[in-house]
Amino acid sequence: MDTLARRKTIVIIGASGHGGMILDCIQTENKFSVLGFLDSYKTKGSMFNGYEILGNEQELPNLMKEHNLDGAIIAIGNNWTRGAMVDKLKVVAPQLNFVSIIHPSSIISKSAQIGKGTIIMPGTIINSNANIGDFCILNTNSSLGHDGKMRDFSSISSGVCTGGNLLLGKFSAISLGSNIIENITIGEHSLIGAGSLVIKNVLDKSIVHGSPARFIRYRDVEDPYLKGDVTVQKLNGAMTRNRYEQ
């Protein structure tokens, strides 16, 4: 049996710039075969980065049956929106397996633990006894210090450097090029602005920015924070967005 036949077949959910980066990681890792992309706001049958848009997430049950699909990876950069998609998929396709993608150029301690659905981009360094939850993102050339903990749906952006014993709360994000000293706790749903130096603990739902980082304001959990984010709309009590986030 050749190498291609042994690869598990997956789909990428979200055809954006982030989805393109994840595709590069998958191709380099050479562990999975990509069937195509799912995206609610792109035309079914159109192409993205050389792969077909197979429809939206409602297509998953048929794809799992027709193509013996082994799993999926969610390519949505916004932590809150990614969490909402996971909740939706658990209803649409409860048997769906979520895979993790790890670029081969990353350096990961043997004692580190990595949850399902997590994405580790090129050049990432994960140090000893780190614990990364489910559906997290560690972007290009970021580092997580020893004994660091990232709770589910949290993310660190490109060039972020964290000292030992970080605790990053659920849905929280550390933006481009920020530095976090040792023994810092960042609460849930918080945002660290780009280029910040964090030397104090950060409360839940806080935006902090600067060097040293200072409290700017509190935020709502669904507030956009990535370039290209769009306004969250509340329809019949459900959180929706008009397109996938970059």
TrEMBL record:
The record marks D147 as: Increases basicity of active site His. SUPFAM superfamilies: Trimeric LpxA-like enzymes. The keyword Transferase applies. Residues 10-89 form the PglD N-terminal domain. Keywords: Transferase. The active site is at H146. CDD domains: LbH_AT_putative. Pfam families: PglD_N. GO terms for molecular function: transferase activity. Substrate binds at S16, G17, H18, G77. Signal peptide: none annotated. Belongs to the transferase hexapeptide repeat family. This is Transferase. It comes from Gelidibacter salicanalis.
